[in-house]
Every structure is written in structure tokens, then in C-alpha cells.
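Long-time lurker, first post. I've been practising inverse folding by hand and with some scripts of my own, and I keep getting stuck on stretches where the C-alpha cells seem ambiguous. Below is the full C-alpha cell string for one chain I'm working on. Before anyone asks, I'm not after the true native sequence, just a reasonable design that respects the backbone. If someone could post their per-position residues I'd love to compare against what I wrote down in my notebook.
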């Protein structure tokens, strides 16, 4: 499967997909479950926008080799005060278990994560990531 995936740089036209998938998949997290939808979507979208707009953020896009506009996953990373952080990793459900996440983490090896989902817990354990939600507020 990895041979049919290409990793490319984030483009501005990727923003709607990244924002939408991040918001929807993170809504099921322990953090966001109890937050009312209107509050969550308003405020967490602002947090994501701020992360994506900072000059220190790097987003790796996993896309189809046949059509690089077809996104199958992504990894949003940043170096803050010397700490390598994975803000969020996302892989479309149809591609789970096919090595997309592993491929993304081979290209960027963070030590910390600022977001944690139920599904992401096993990813964090495999990658040896330490959950530090306070990186969201720096």
C-alpha cells in the first residue's frame, strides 16, 4: 500500500479537508466529548487555524500517487521552544492499518503530541509520544 502513496507538502487548498477532518475526528476525543457542538466547532476551529497559520508549523500530506489531490492522511507538526510536537495525525478510515501513519512518522519523528483521541492512543504508544495538551496554548 505504501507504494501507492506519495508524501507531499501542504497546500492552501488542503485547508478545508484538514480542518474538517480534524474537527470531526477530534470531536470524539475525551477532551471534546462533553463540549457542546456549537462551542467546540467555533473555538477548536480557531485553535486549528492558529496552528496551521504559524510559520513554525509543517504539515505533511499523504496522497494518492495517481492523483496528489486525493488526500488519504496528514501529519501536522511543529517545533516549539525546542520541542518536536505532533499536533495531529489523521488517516482516512479506509486506509487505516495500511502503513500511512507509519510512513508519515518515518519522515518526522516528534516526541510529544498536543492532541489525543481514543484511536490516537495506540498511535501515540507505538510512536512513543508523550501527551502534553499545553502545547495548544503556546
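-- Answer (accepted) --
I ran through it position by position. Result:
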Amino acid at each position: 500500500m505504501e507504494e501507492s502513496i506519495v508524501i507531499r507538502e501542504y497546500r492552501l487548498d488542503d485547508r478545508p479537508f484538514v480542518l474538517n477532518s480534524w474537527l470531526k475526528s477530534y470531536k470524539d476525543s475525551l477532551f471534546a466529548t462533553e463540549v457542546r457542538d456549537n462551542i467546540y466547532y467555533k473555538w477548536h476551529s480557531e485553535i486549528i487555524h492558529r496552528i496551521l497559520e504559524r510559520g513554525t508549523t509543517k504539515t505533511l500530506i499523504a496522497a494518492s500517487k495517481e492523483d496528489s489531490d486525493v488526500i488519504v492522511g496528514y501529519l501536522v507538526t511543529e517545533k516549539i521552544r525546542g520541542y518536536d510536537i505532533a499536533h495531529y495525525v489523521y488517516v482516512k478510515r479506509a486506509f487505516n492499518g495500511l502503513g500511512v501513519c507509519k510512513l508519515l512518522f518515518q519522515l518526522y519523528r516528534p516526541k510529544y503530541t498536543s492532541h489525543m483521541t481514543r484511536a490516537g492512543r495506540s498511535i501515540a504508544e507505538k510512536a512513543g509520544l508523550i501527551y502534553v495538551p499545553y502545547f495548544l496554548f503556546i
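A couple of notes from the structure itself: The chain has a mean pLDDT of 90. Helices lie at 15-26, 37-53, 100-107, 118-127. Happy to go over any region you disagree with.
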